[in-house]
């Protein structure tokens, strides 16, 4: 990946649409402002490869939890920086606070509702060698 430039993000920017999503049972619902043409990461680390998580990392200001806070269960492991948030009813992790971007939110694109996504470009991310590659993601939450 090439060098990234940090850019201030205006959530009213017309480059973004509001995507809605949530867990399987519907207890957890959220919305996220992101382009209609998404660029996401497919991580091969131990947790992401088992869960099939497709990563859309955004600044915290572009994410809004609409319902389900009481149902969310946190799972912390390894460094304890990442805050994996699962629905306590159905077990789905539709978003979490990533270790690579603790100032942002990482949404599972597979948990977004249909209708607002024009296209998805999937980029591989070598999470098995996280320490060597994490800097490639740091610009995504800015």
Structure description:
The strands form two sheets. This protein has a seven-stranded mixed β-sheet with strand order 6-7-8-9-4-3-10, with no helix packed on it. A three-stranded antiparallel β-sheet has the order 1-2-5, with no helix packed on it. 32% of the residues are buried. The protein has helices at residues 46-51, 130-133; strands at residues 17-22, 29-34, 37-43, 54-59, 63-67, 72-75, 83-87, 95-97, 104-108, 119-125. The protein is 7% helix and 38% strand. It is built from two helices and ten strands; from the N terminus they run E-E-E-H-E-E-E-E-E-E-E-H. The chain has a single domain (33-141), classed as Metal Binding Protein, Guanine Nucleotide Exchange Factor, Chain A, CATH 2.170.150.70. The chain is globular, with a radius of gyration of 14 Å.
Please give the structural blueprint.
Layout: E1 17-22, E2 29-34, E3 37-43, H1 46-51, E4 54-59, E5 63-67, E6 72-75, E7 83-87, E8 95-97, E9 104-108, E10 119-125, H2 130-133
């Amino acid at each position: 990946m090439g060098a990234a430039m940090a850019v201030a993000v205006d959530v009213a920017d017309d480059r973004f649409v509001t995507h809605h999503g949530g867990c399987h049972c519907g207890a957890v619902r959220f919305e996220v402002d992101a382009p209609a043409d998404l660029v996401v990461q497919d991580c091969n680390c131990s947790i992401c490869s088992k869960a099939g998580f497709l990563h859309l990392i955004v600044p915290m200001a572009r994410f809004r939890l609409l319902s389900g806070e009481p149902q969310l269960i946190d799972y912390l492991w390894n460094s304890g920086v990442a805050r994996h948030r699962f629905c306590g009813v159905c077990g789905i992790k539709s978003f979490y606070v990533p270790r690579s971007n603790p100032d942002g939110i990482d949404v599972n694109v597979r948990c977004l509702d249909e209708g607002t996504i024009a296209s998805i470009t999937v980029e591989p991310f070598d999470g098995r060698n996280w320490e060597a590659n994490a800097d490639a993601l740091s610009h995504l939450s800015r």
